[in-house]
């Protein structure tokens, strides 16, 4: 039987506010356990929550970026469940009236552009953290994270492969960091993904029974977990079993998911309106304030790059995949004025070098200014592509500019026609066999002669001039 995979993602975006959603406690990562938990976070009697205005502002920005509906009236609900790291016995969240609804996010999977609908994004507080591995026979409770502001962003179940899901998660990660509403640090839990996965026979309209894989903190784990879960469900059904709706965890060491608990439905949480929090009404002024502080969005910037620098649509998409890379490109392109060359080198030689070194562009040993210096020397024919690669390798290993390396190593491209002609004459005299083969119609012989000329010039002769002059000599 042919099976179809159905995937929806719930992404927990930790907002980068300085204080928590309902208290003045710090949200800084890495503090000693329980030093950033005040009376509100610990749910001491008489302590009342107060809404953090900046949380609302950041939520509005995401809604605007997703071209979504922003609900003007927002109420908070109590989501009741009992766990050691939830001292109140409930989590403050939003159920029926989320701040953001009906948005869209564009993703690129291979060469295909897809639109994934975003059902909702709602504000809520995070729970604390249970620490199981520091005390023998005991579990430690750290409430520093309790009350940290989150946006839970829920997609429609419109993804049909792990590749779709990873592309969507990456696009959402790029967007929230671009908007500067989240630092995106997955290792620290700032961006966590829950994947709802089910399978159904192809052509069937009804969804299969879904399982939720919780707390995936890397794109690689997301892909591995989905692929394993899809295989597990298909094998289970084909063997005559049934998929049970449940929450599962992914074990990256074993590359498999395992059951955690049966999956609760909304009614199991006994939601009811929080009596301690008044509705939050979003005014026109609040909307305008959020709009005025919005950065140029990736799609808008990509369109401008195409228009301003003459680069391809594909290159523009890649360059605007994150804000640091886009800013880096624009800085280099403005310095040199050679946008296409900068894009080619960023997405070619530089990307390969960064990948090999296992670092991103923010840690590149070659700055935007230095790369612009290199592309300037290519544009004015001081360097051929071959010489430019040699200069690039030296730049990667040193702090020298392209001009300094060219001067020190005498790498300036030879463009003097007379000097090139003299080398050609010498090469032709020494390679009469190749000359005869070319004249008899063997084009490979011409390439061999070009190679000999380039070798004789130590790679410094202008390749285009060599080919033009060589053909005229052989005519």
Could you characterize what this model shows?
Helix 2 (162-178) packs antiparallel against helix 3, helix 5 runs parallel beside helix 7 (323-336) and helix 7 (323-336) crosses helix 9. This protein has helices at residues 53-65, 162-178, 219-238, 284-292, 298-309, 313-319, 323-336, 339-357, 368-379, 385-397, 402-409, 417-430, 432-439, 443-456, 463-474, and strands at 3-14, 69-70, 73-74, 77-80, 90-93, 100-109, 112-125, 129-131, 140-142, 149-155, 191-201, 211-216, 246-251, 256-262, 272-273, 280-281. It contains 15 helices and 16 strands. It folds into three domains: 3-285, no CATH class; 295-409, no CATH class; 417-474, Arc Repressor Mutant, subunit A. The strands form four sheets. Strands 2-6-7-10-1-11-12-13-14 form a nine-stranded mixed β-sheet. Strands 5-4-15 form a three-stranded antiparallel β-sheet, with no helix packed on it. The chain has a two-stranded antiparallel sheet with strand order 3-16. The model has no long low-confidence stretch (mean pLDDT 91). It is 40% helix and 20% strand. A hairpin with a 4-residue loop joins strand 13 and strand 14. It is an alpha+beta fold and 475 residues long.
Give the helices and strands, then pairings.
Elements: E1 3-14, H1 53-65, E2 69-70, E3 73-74, E4 77-80, E5 90-93, E6 100-109, E7 112-125, E8 129-131, E9 140-142, E10 149-155, H2 162-178, E11 191-201, E12 211-216, H3 219-238, E13 246-251, E14 256-262, E15 272-273, E16 280-281, H4 284-292, H5 298-309, H6 313-319, H7 323-336, H8 339-357, H9 368-379, H10 385-397, H11 402-409, H12 417-430, H13 432-439, H14 443-456, H15 463-474
Parallel strand pairs: 12-13
Antiparallel strand pairs: 1-10, 1-11, 2-6, 3-16, 4-5, 4-15, 6-7, 7-10, 8-9, 11-12, 13-14
Helix pairs in contact: 1-4, 2-3, 5-6, 5-7, 7-8, 7-9, 9-10, 12-14, 12-15, 13-14, 14-15
Protein name: Aspartyl/glutamyl-tRNA(Asn/Gln) amidotransferase subunit B
Keywords: ATP-binding, Ligase, Nucleotide-binding, Protein biosynthesis, Transferase
Family: Belongs to the GatB/GatE family. GatB subfamily.
